[in-house]
Specification:
It is built from nine helices and 13 strands. The N and C termini lie far apart (about 40 Å). The longest helix is centred in the middle third of the chain and has 19 residues. Helix 5 links the parallel strand 9 and strand 10. The strands form two sheets. Strands 1, 2, 3, 4, 6, 7, 8, 11, 12 and 13 form a ten-stranded mixed sheet that branches. A three-stranded parallel sheet has the order 5-10-9, covered by helices on one side. With about 300 residues, the chain is an alpha/beta fold. Helix 1 runs parallel beside helix 7 and helix 4 packs across helix 8. Bound molecules: zinc ion. The site of zinc ion has 5 residues, from loops.
């Protein structure tokens, strides 16, 4: 369904479709007061952007994930919330040394943002890198525990649920706080019963509007060319990239310049509330992965003060 109408209310615009709602906070500097997000990851205070030519953030949309809305026209065609020339940047498969920090550096230089879909196992390998993603103010969801393809017939229903739930528990462990109830299926394979399950868990599902195919790219230029060609054809969309891959990290500075030059604007997506992980999987994760509990860790490794 296309969103046909909006209501102006209390300085923010609320859009409703199919029982789902977004409320949008205005960009920094706007006269209207931004709405507070109730995400458990502490949101860093807004810093002034030092780069006058930065891509920036055009607007922030808050997602009510009740019932598990789906985003990305490759699989979910009901919610068309992006305006012409608006994009959402998404990054899968991290956190990973070198490449994730490089992506973070480029996004910081451009004063812009994305949604990260980390793999649970990777999050337990490199919690400090994932904490840097959170500290930079990006939105963090999950992308399963071990990147298993959930349409694989060899997996039982319990194993599929475990992939989803343990992924969120691992990201929560790494951050020391609950991530967003945003999920992306590995290989964009969406088994219907898991789509239904995520609905019952009030987790939003993210496919994409355009796949950069950066994981297949031979070099950075190919990532840029494929992405811009598809984007110029569609005119807007949720872009699938991988902070895990070297070519993507290398391509990002030029890709950001091309987006800016093409008149594209970045939309930040945040949830209305953080995900509620299930205690059973939080405990299973600690037992299996032999991870220290959050209370065993020093405060400084969990909470970072962001200087402005
Ligand atoms: Zn992936």
């Amino acid at each position: 369904m296309r969103i046909a109408a909006g209501l102006i209310f209390a300085g923010a615009v609320s859009l409703c479709a199919s029982g789902l709602a977004w409320s949008q906070t205005p960009p920094p500097g706007s006269a209207a007061a931004p709405q507070a997000a109730s995400a458990a990851v502490p949101a860093p205070a807004k810093a002034a952007c030092a780069n006058p030519n930065a891509l920036g953030i055009a607007r922030v949309v808050e997602i009510d994930t009740t019932g598990g809305p789906g985003f990305g026209f490759e699989h979910f065609k009901q919610l068309d919330f992006l305006r012409d020339h608006e994009v959402v940047l998404t990054f899968d498969d991290g956190p990973w040394p070198l490449n994730t920090p490089s992506v973070l550096k480029t996004l910081a230089e451009e004063c812009t943002t994305g949604i990260f879909f980390p793999i649970g196992k990777h999050s337990t390998y490199y919690p400090e890198i994932l904490k840097q993603v959170a500290a930079a103010g990006h939105t963090i969801g999950s992308h399963t525990w071990s990147h298993a393809t959930l349409t694989n017939k060899k997996l039982t229903e319990d194993q599929r649920k475990e992939e989803i739930e343990k992924g969120f528990s691992a990201v929560k462990w790494a951050l020391g706080a609950s991530p967003s109830p945003f999920f992306r299926f590995p290989a964009l394979q969406h088994p219907p019963e898991m789509v239904n399950y995520l609905g019952t868990r009030n987790v939003a599902m993210f496919s994409c509007d355009l796949d950069s195919f950066d994981f297949k790219a031979r070099n950075a230029q190919q990532v840029i060319d494929v992405t811009m060609k598809k984007l110029d054809k569609l005119g807007k969309g949720i872009i699938l990239l991988h902070d895990f891959h070297k070519h993507t990290a290398e391509a990002l500075p030029e890709l950001m310049h091309r987006l800016k030059a093409g008149g594209y604007k970045v939309v930040k997506m945040i949830p209305k509330a953080p995900v509620q992980t299930l205690p059973q999987y939080d405990e299973e994760l600690l037992k299996e992965a032999k991870l220290p509990t959050v209370s065993d860790r020093p405060v400084s490794s969990v909470v970072q003060t962001i200087s402005q």
